[in-house]
Amino acid sequence: MSEAARSLLQRWGASFRKGTDFDSWGQLVEAIDEYQILARHLQKEAQSQHNSSEFTEDQKKTIAKIATCLELRSAALQSTQSQDEFKLEDLKKLEPILKNILTYNKEFPFDVQPVPLRKILAPGEEEHLEFEEDDEEGGAGAGSPDSFPARVPGTLLPRLPSEPRMTLLTINIEKIGLKDAGQCIDPYITVSVKDLNGIDLTPVQDTPVALRKEDTYVHFNVDIEIQKHIEKLTKGAAIFFEFKHYKPKKKFTSTKCFAFMEMDEIKPGAIVIELYKKPTDFKRKKLQLLTKKPLYLHLHQTLHKE
């Protein structure tokens, strides 16, 4: 086993145990957070190019299935329905499989399929993809890097428990301005909190499909509870909003544009933020405005402090 693989498995194992510990202690918000972040790390490895991975294709399939089980357990913790849920004792059966992934050669214990959240491309690979037809202002955006399998939006999480002298943030997504707002099918927004390297700091949340489309606006009027106290976010963190819609011709959900809010913009009241061309740049290094028109994402922030 290479040093890189050993280090990776140790980190995954520690994260897995942390999540199941939170789960068994009844700290469900923390468990969901840990499960979803680990699931994304596993999915990213499962989709990595063969020559850049420490694992074989069969091992990566098993890793992807473990990620699916983490997502299923996370969904079970958020659901009010108890039947057919993925149980903690089931999830714990996967810990030795993950630990011994390099030698594991048995049939996977659960009938699940890998469900990648997004296609992950090698750096620069998106430059060779066809341009999309519907880019604003004739921009050259690529469709495939931001293509997602069809899934039902609406994974909002409840507000965290309050802590003394700590601040929680609720963001109401009011509406987004787009020149072709009326043509967007099943639009929703994915909200994530990233550090400067683009790593998730909280679970990713999807809004339900928009309430209505009117003129150049898509209306949401939905509250997002940021899943970390503001004081605990790392320096340079940002909150991202990715606007997604379904493309029937291509049969996938695509990111149309994105916006983000940095820490110094967190303050009570209304705020409008600019929209940028895809693909989403979580590191905020190559930003291109979506349009010169006065079209923005309209938000309202509420701060909660003990």
Unreliable residue runs: 116-152
CATH topology grouping of the largest domain = Immunoglobulin-like
End-to-end CA span: 49 Å
Shape call: globular
Number of helices: 5
Largest sheet descriptor: 6 strands, antiparallel
> What portion of residues belong to β-strands?
15-25%
Overall average pLDDT = 82
Radius of gyration: 20 Å
Q: CATH-wise, what's the superfamily of the largest domain?
A: C2 domain
The H-and-E topology, N to C, reads as HHHHHEEEEEEEEEEE
Query: Helix content range of the residues, please?
Result: 10-25%
Oligomer: single chain
Biased composition (Acidic residues): 128-138
Protein name: AIDA protein
GO molecular function: phosphatidylinositol binding
GO biological process, one term: determination of ventral identity
